[in-house]
Amino acid sequence: LKSSNGLAKFDTTGTEIWSLPIAPQEMTVDDSGRVVTSLYTSGVKTIFRYTTNGTLDFSDSTIMAKKIVCDANGNIYLLSDLPGYTLVKFDSSGAFVWRKDNLAAPTSFGDIGLEMLIDYNGDLLLVGLQDSILKFSPTGNLIWRSSMYGLDAYIVGAKLYSTNILAVAGSVSGFAGYDMVIATYDLNGNPNWTGYYSGNVGGREFTWDLSVDGNGIYAIEDNDYSTCLLYTSDAADERSSVDLGGRRIINKKNSNNAVDRRTQKKKTNREKECEDKSKQKKNNKKKHRNQIKKQ
Fold it and tell me: Among 49, 247, 262, 267, which residue's beta carbon has the most beta carbons within 10 A?
């Protein structure tokens, strides 16, 4: 657990095991239970790793990482966005391995929509670098670069599921503001399908986070009227596009596989509540405008 006041480890009952008076910018835990952190200090070192009992394992001077991931072998990958996009690898012993600079044109204010993942083959996926997805091998070779087609307008979320399918949630500029979009990509960076959600006419809708499980994809959006949880089944991988609509989407094929049919689950109480709140706020605004006109 990290906060602005320190780093701590708790057991499954909530009892504190150890704590340190440091304030990491980012952290992760490898498969051995070691904690890797990136933080500013009074010295020049910026990466620190702690054992399961909180003892400092190694430290070094490198980039200030905004994202950290560890692979199954304990190798450490660091990604920064200022002053430019930089990717660094350390091996499991803490030795520097390689560094990649100038991955994309740098931003002047940092990048809040940035994700880094290790896929099931041990390759590295960087999501949200100037509206692009980059895939690197463990040796640092660029395997492919794929466009996100405008998804990287604000915050992005990315997760892997099923047979190495990459799910990405983001926001795109639509006809009447920003809309939330979910897209999936195959191993080669090709889009499988794209789902759009526009629940508020004229309102802005932004992705906040994304998660997946064995049943499908879940996304949280933040908009001008409310915050809602949306869900789509991974059965949508059979289609080129889907309408999220806050409902589960299921595709079925008939016996001769000639026609796709789609059935939709009824709206849950939470989904109805989101829509009711949105309608109520719109009605209140309309009522207020009418009162002003009368005055």
Answer: 49
